[in-house]
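Quick check before the chapter quiz. The format below is the same one you will see on the exam, so make sure you can read both the input and the output lines.
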Amino acid sequence: MIFELNRSCFVSDNGTMSLIFMANIALKGRHRLYVCHPEDEAYLKWFEGLGASLQENWRVALDTSISLEALESAKYSVLVCNDTDQCYDRESLVLDLSAAERLIYEPFKVFVENNGADRDFLLTFSTHDQFNKIRELEAANLFSFEHCGGITELPKKVEYYANERRVNYLNCSAVFDSDAPSPDAASKEAMIAKDVCDRHGVFSHVLRRRAIENYLSRDWLNTWVNKSPKSARSNKKKIFTSYCKLNLEQRSHFHMKRGLKVDKDGIQAGAITLYSDVSDGDLCTLNEGFGDNLAGDLYAADWVQNAQTVNDSDAWGEVNGMINEILVQCR
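Here is the expected output.
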């Protein structure tokens, strides 16, 4: 966000500590500061009252803000003003200095179902620059993945955070599985989560594929299968062989953890017709999935996170585009 500082921010020394703190955050490259009237007498008097070290930090913060804004414009603009009413509309935000300080201090939150596997998933589909930016912001406590403990708890946590302060909707996003057993058939729970996000103005991304496991490259999966303990390797190889016979749409909605047995009722009732061209033998094999540890094992692996995969352009385009939008929201 770019914080446009009105002259009222400088009419007394009471806000100096808040302004210096905001400058320190701007120096870390997340937010930007802009003085609306740099020739105003109140501003010049305030600036002259700073010590030489603070004056230099303030100048650098403003210069850094200008440079960053020229490269990548901020998503939102906030007028910081102590002599008028606050306004929380996305297109005409007005906050007093105290509220602006609280907002600039808060890390940008990404609400996810599982902050371990989901964080690794998003990092895997990040470019090197995006990866480094996220890690840098995390280290500075300006960005965090918020563990929600599942799809039913995620909307509750989003709603609680959005209701905590009226500007919090600017400072978060949410990413969650669609749990869709077939295309355009997101689960009831996923739609509830999306509706809550939409109602509070929170940017959300419902994965088009069923879950994060459905974005795993077959090359990665093959390596993981072959590194499995001997006791499980043979069975996993059979499942992998049948899985590779599926087309992209089928692979995108196959329950990677537990297999087709999860969708047994829908398949038998004719509600799920996705696998009608799959042989009986492969259907039998695919009744089982790869187990619960699949995403946790693979997305956490350095060789996967560093892969910069492009062999599934559909997966890369969707997830990397979402990461880019999150970083746009964040700045």
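If your answer matched, good. The chain has three domains: 2-105, 108-209+306-330, 214-292.
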